[in-house]
Amino acid sequence: MRPGKLLFIIAGLLAGLAPGVPIAGSFEQHPETLSFINEMVERHQFDRKELQAIFAETEKRDDILEAIARPAESKPWYQYRPIFLTSSRIEGGVDFWNRHADILQRAEQTYGVDAAIIVAIIGVETRYGANTGSYRVIDALSTLAFEYPPRSKFFRSELEQFLILSREEDVDLREAKGSYAGAMGYGQFIPSSYRNYAVDFDNDGKRDLWTSMEDIIGSVANYFRRHGWERGQPVASKVKSRQPIPESLVSKQRKPEKTVGDYARAGIVSNPQLPDSQPVSLLELEQEQGREYWLTTNNFYVITRYNRSPLYSMAVYQLSEAIRDAYHNSESGF
After folding, report:
1. Mean of the per-residue pLDDT values for the chain?
2. Do 24 and 14 touch, CB atoms closer than 8 A?
3. Residue 36 lies inside a defined structural domain of this protein
4. What letters, b where the CB count within 10 A reaches 16 and e where it falls short, cover 286-313?
5. 167-190 pLDDT, tens per residue?
6. I want to staple 293 with a disulfide (CB 3.0 to 4.6 A). Which of 27, 239, 252, 283 is the partner?
7. Percent of the chain at pLDDT above 90?
């Protein structure tokens, strides 16, 4: 028998093992797992045998370790932008908005967050629910908590939050799937965000970010409101300057620390114009033929609370504007 075929048969047998039976590469005897189980039993009164059974079935995923080592945000802007600013994602956003217009309107009224931003977030994160992740969340978080030293403390905390979440919201630990980093549902909430910011927008007694569109949309809106989104305020404005901009003027912080007037006095203006008193940061983006600059507001900063990368925030903003234009044009019959 060929070695490859033998391995295929063994893998099939392992996949068919009954729940609780240890599998190759599981975390059952990992020293960090044993310590973690002790903490969960003592701190949150989890059942030790149940957790031991769960971790006997939890797998270390090398592909997760590879994926987290090469995030898309490491690309320059001119390569990053085309990933998200596509005709299919814009058209998908318009379709999503049309199908869920009533929920989006209610979320906008309730939380003060622009419907186009909510749609764009869901579009960037999961293509409007088409790709919510294929990794078991328990595998992803355990792999990163116990096998990824650079951020093990963070992911260990998220693993703790996930176990608590499973108890609070009746999430199946063995079946729940998400991203390679353990983010879940249409909006890709990590467990701590799920617990802190998800809302029961359909009032059925459960916060469901996989199948309840009301909860999905309401939760994204609530996340932005809780992080300081300002109703009706701008997000960003592109700088129109013919003069070279000194590197010293480019903001080092994502949160605005100067005003439009401060930059205007340095010869930096944007279109559309923003009020002189508007707090802003100056963002530099790398294009193939040079640099472009944007004045970004507190609402832009709030988007970075969803994902720290300013490239991500700019992609969400530009996608939201493209979707908004296409949506209103479709309403007008153009």
Report:
1. 91
2. yes
3. yes
4. eeeeeeebbbbbbbbbbbbbbbebbbbb
5. 999 999 999 999 999 999 999 999
6. 239
7. 84
How far apart (Å, rounded) are the C-alpha atoms in residues 166 and 158?
A: 12
Residue 25: pLDDT band by 50, 70, 90 thresholds?
Answer: low
Q: Which amino acid is at 42?
A: E
The reported pTM is: 0.89
- CB of 318 within 8 A of CB of 127? no
CB within 8 A of 256, min separation 6: which ones? 279, 280, 281, 296, 297, 298, 301
In a domain, 296, yes or no: no
Whether 333 is in a domain gets the answer no
CATH code where residue 41 lies: 1.10.8.350
Q: Tell me what the mean pLDDT of segment 91-119 comes to.
A: 98
121 assigned to some structural domain: no
Domain that holds residue 34: 22-59+133-183
User: What phi and psi values does residue 134 have, to the nearest 5 degrees?
Assistant: -115, 0
Q: Which residues are catalytic?
A: 125
